[in-house]
Amino acid sequence: MFILVHGSNHSSRCWEPVVDLLDAPTLALDLPGRGRHPAPLDHVHVSDFIESAVKDIKDADATEAVLVGHSMAGLSLAGIVDQVHDRLSHVAFVSCIVPRHGETMLSELPPGLVELSRAATPTPAGLWPGKRVLAQTMCGGMDERQTSFTLEVSVPEAFWPMHDPVDLAGLRHAVPRTWVKLLDDGAPTPEQADVYAERTGCAEVVELAAGHFAMITHPQQFADALNHIHA
User: Which of 67, 103, 179, 212 has the fewest CB atoms within 10 Å of its CB?
Assistant: First the structure.
């Protein structure tokens, strides 16, 4: 089984282009505040992401699973691993943001995004930068159809997770892990990705010539990489 954890401003729907190309059943999670788990987005923290994901994994009775996290999922993967490591065969970090233990996502963002984040205020409706900004930050290298899909499935994001200190203690568990390095990504850059891969103890790095949303722009190549990990 594949367990798929989305990143910021998205839900389980971002995985739709790749699900049917994977060689095993998939459990695409909705973190709190979207999809199957609505919640007021001014009360959601990384701890809620972890608790919700763990419950969904246990409810699905997942075993021998490959846990796949994308982008901001890097804030919660270690916490998920800590609680369900006995159900996992592998962990794949896909262009994740992984701050140092005890630091926040804000410490890893470009100055412009940090400024926008600090200027925002908590609201039950969540943070929604607008489709123009999302198109500029998320849709580089996409064709018109891919851009339309990405914006269609985008959702508001919770305020607090990027301000929450990250706990990486769960990575002490000896679950094999791979970093999927997206060579055309800008956040994280390939250079940052090398730092994160080392920080998370990834013994293997798989490179794809794709931007941040490889599951949308290069679904077959992305699926091939995950199927290789699963095999």
Answer: 103
Specify the amino acid at residue 123.
T
Say if strands 204-208 and 65-70 run parallel, antiparallel, or are unpaired: unpaired
No. of helices (H) and no. of strands (E), the chain = 9, 6
Rounded to a whole number, what is the largest CA-CA distance in the chain? 45
Looking at the DSSP bridge assignments, the partners of residue 208 are 182
Phi and psi dihedrals of 179, rounded to 5?
A: -100, 125
Give this prediction's pTM.
Answer: 0.94
Query: Helix %, strand %, coil % for the chain, to 5?
Result: 45, 15, 40
Element (H, E) at 77: helix 77-84
Contacts of 183 (CB under 8 A, 6+ apart): 190, 207, 208, 209, 210
Task: Collapse the DSSP code of 185 into the 3-class scheme (helix H, G, I; strand E, B; otherwise coil) and give the result.
Answer: coil
pLDDT tens column, 141-182: 899 999 999 999 999 999 999 999 999 999 999 999 999 999
CATH 3.90.1570.10 fits 2-230, yes or no: no
Q: How confident is the model at residue 60 (pLDDT cuts 50, 70, 90)?
A: very high
Residue 106 is given by DSSP the state G
Task: Give the span between the Cα atoms of 78 and 97, in whole angstroms.
Answer: 12
